[in-house]
Amino acid sequence: MKKNSAQIFLVFLLLSFPLLGQTKPITFAWLSDTHVGNSTGESDLSISMNDINKMKDIDFTLISGDISQTGRTYDLKKAKKILDSLKMPYHIIPGNHDTKWSESGGTQFVNIWNNDRFVFEADKNLFIGLHQGPIMRMSEGHFAPEDIRWLDSVLQTIDKSKAIIFVSHYPLDQSITNWYEVLDLLKKKNIELILCGHGHNNNTFSFEGIPGVMGRSDLRAKDKPGGFNIVEMKNDSIFFFERIPATNTKNLWHKIKLEQIDFSKDTTKYLRPDFSINKKYPNVKVKWSTRENFLITSSAGFSKDKIFIGNSGGEFTAYSSSNGILLWKFKTAGKVFSSAAVYNNLVLFGSTDSNLYCLNAKDGKLIWKHKAGGPILCSPVVEKNIVYFASGDYSFNAVDLPTNNLLWNFTGLNGFVETKPWLTKNSIIFGAWDSYLYALDKTTGNFKWKWNNGRIEELYSPAACEPVASNGKVFIAAPDRFLTAIDENTGEIIWRSNKHQVRESIGISSDGKTIFSRTMNDSVFAFSPSENQLKEKWIVAANYGYDFNPGSIVEQKGKIFFGTRNGLVYCMNSKNGKILWIYKIGVSSVNKITAVSSSNIIASDMSGNIISLKF
After folding, report:
1. Euclidean distance between CA atoms 88 and 60, whole angstroms
2. Is pTM, for the whole model, over 0.90?
3. Residue 592 phi, psi dihedral angles, 5° rounding
4. Beta-strand pair 26-31/60-64
5. Cβ count near 499 (within 10 Å)
6. For a tag site, which of 98, 550, 564, 573 has the least CB within 10 Å?
7. How far apart are CA 279 and CA 299, in angstroms?
8. Quick one: which H or E segment has residue 152?
9. Which of 265, 297, 315 lies at the terminal end of a domain, its last residue?
10. Is the same domain home to 83 and 127?
């Protein structure tokens, strides 16, 4: 009997050895691009959550961005309520739809979910989630400086052998301006897989030798209902199955062997940024440069010998315009996406902490702050001691500069205001993310008119374009790719043209006699504001490629300046469009240029670069 017991134990032990070498299988649900706020987004997400809750083997759920359609707080809270119905943990990052059109500058996502990144362990694997915005800009994806620092700090704490699965919204390629910064960091460790969304379809990639998988959208599209992926990790491999809720799990569509990659053996020369254009124009010199530690989406304010600029760290900083020395720094409780208005010896700007700040331009001391009803993302304008600005509670306001008293408050908006308004003799004109361009009486705040392009769709709003006005007409370039001239007094269309496929980039000469715009494909043109139809003065192929950077075109004494989505700054002759020079300041979207003089400009970009160029 003892002999039989020993034999049975020996057989059991031998059978157990293969199992001892296996790790516990991990199964997770993976959703992406839920777009709550879209016509079916809320319903599709609810169906998927109910379906996942019926599965007994799901360890956790990943959601890889575009949680909402436009980043509205209301839609994010709806998504949170639905996702919180899950019986197991979930890990979430935002996508471009949550950050580009966010009425809070992306801050509500963090408030609702306590973070917009994640890091956690599942068995022997470390999952790292990080979004790439873009925040408050129509641009390529971009990892903010603060997010790069965070990723680096996480990676420094782990052993080189630790298996990493990285999750982003965009594919980790050139659709992100600084994709290579993250790839280069990940390659220093044991990165085995990259997961992403954004494309709405299941797909596979190789990101410089790293396996990549794109997950489908949870939206139903033409089907009913939508769907997601069930992912199984076992025996050093990962398996992807498409799941159609309440019906069936489709057959395996992709599998990958998870293993450490020896990047030292990869001799491929991968694409990296090229700055050789800077050698072509030797007359352009860097007078000074600095780099802030946070994202910048605003342009620099200028007064006498100082420039002023804010960042996503909530800092508002003054630098010497002559040598770039930091003069003072003011900290807000939110993020600063608002460009500064400089008036006499004061500088004004807004923050996502819902305050409009008025500082002494000389020393940065607070004069007053005005508490608004929501985050302030737009750039204020000042005229005759009155400050005009909008806030995230869908209101537009006028405040008396000397006393900080509210003069009037217009509450007839259905979307937030992002950009800098335009003042005419009697009106203040601006676009909002509710599809309309508005004109208010600047003395009383009374409604005068509103205009839209015939499509009640938020994403086509004339809201990121700084309008300009001349000869009784208001001019805008909008996401519908039309250039439009509108009667300043009535809001009636004078003319509309899609001849040049424009998008949100427009400018005006200092004498008001020429309007400038640029197309999404290479060309810049000028036209007369006095005509009742589009009549070009000149059009030039500038060869910047496909571009949708919304930065306004700035004119200064016969020269125009603008930046592109990939770090180029252009200077052209305003009379004939001749390219005078091109300079690459970085890899990310360039903000509106600040002209200090006809031979000196200040340029900034989303990477935090601030550069003074002389020429």
Report:
1. 6
2. yes
3. -55, 130
4. parallel
5. 12
6. 573
7. 26
8. helix 145-156
9. 265
10. yes
